[in-house]
Amino acid sequence: MVKIISIILVFGLIVFVHEFxxxxxxxxxxxxxxxxxxxxxxxxxxxxxxxxxYALRMFPIGGYCMMEGQLEESEDPNAFSxxxxxQRLAILFAGPCFNFILAFVLAIVVCHYSYIDPPTIxxxxxxxxxxxxxxxxxxxxxxxxxxxxxxFREISLFRMMADPTKPVEVTIDRNGEVVQTxxxxxxxxxxGSYMFGIRxxxxxxxxxSEEVYYGALEVRLQIKSVFMTLGSMFRGxxxxxxxxGPVGIxxxxxxxxxxxxxxxEESGSGFGxxxxxxxxxxxxxxxxxxxxxxxxxxxxxxxxxxxxMFEAVTRxxxxxxxELIITGIGAAILIVLMIFVLFNDIGKVMGK
Length: 352
Fold this sequence. Notes:
Layout: H1 2-28, E1 33-47, E2 53-67, H2 85-113, E3 115-116, E4 121-124, H3 129-132, E5 140-144, E6 147-148, H4 153-161, E7 168-174, E8 177-183, E9 186-188, E10 193-195, E11 198-200, E12 203-204, H5 208-234, H6 246-267, H7 271-294, H8 301-314, H9 320-350
Antiparallel strand pairs: 1-2, 3-12, 4-11, 5-6, 5-7, 7-8, 9-10
Helix pairs in contact: 1-2, 1-7, 2-5, 2-7, 2-8, 4-5, 5-7, 6-7, 6-9
């Protein structure tokens, strides 16, 4: 029961913050909001007086901020469709932006109560790829193949996405001296993957400013992870079993809670460790939702942003009927994808 409540609260929080971003910026721009809803499906509770109806719906897998003139033409001067392009862009960007803000704030909390992970090396395994390349304990890796990195986990992310047969150009900060070396990852029988052979020198934060800095880097890491994963999917590196929807995410969160409970029992740290792992999971999900909603896909914020930007550049508004057709096609594709992912998730869970 605790897991179910936790999962519902996590989904609810992330969706609420996203839709509240749209809602608050819409109201600041004097746009009429017909309904603000958390959840989908039949309404459990509705309330509110005036022009906006507030609703809590049965299924915690989404939500919406329904504005006047959002999907149709309206004569109301306060309709979304009658606002200037920059106002509509601000409203559309606000949802993903608020998800990034939520991820950032919670990432600061995680950095305060847990560890930060600068890409500084604590240990180099003997005869490993890093050892043979001359990498030493105390080195800080700053670039991989020319790309700047700030977290040790970026090395793990790079390792998962890179071609293991190709050498990696590594730039190191060694006591203020810039050192260049080349690493060819080695296959590790124990882990079943190609490894550098290094361990991180994670540490406790020393100041609030450091927590803010690494909180921002955490959001950056999650955003980078989404784009790298999408790129790998287009290159065919991942298959359908790597996709996850609400059921798969809930299952992953259940696993996170189980692992945190086991670790808390071993360490005697209690519920605090479990809560910290849940908060860390919210950071991941919120940042991911922010990025996915900005993708230029019809029916998502990114698709609508693209249409408004087209209008701003050409000074020609996309006719409401055509916009509705484009959005409808996008929504239909998303629904089919969601159904596919749902059954795929159920199949993975049942197959455990």
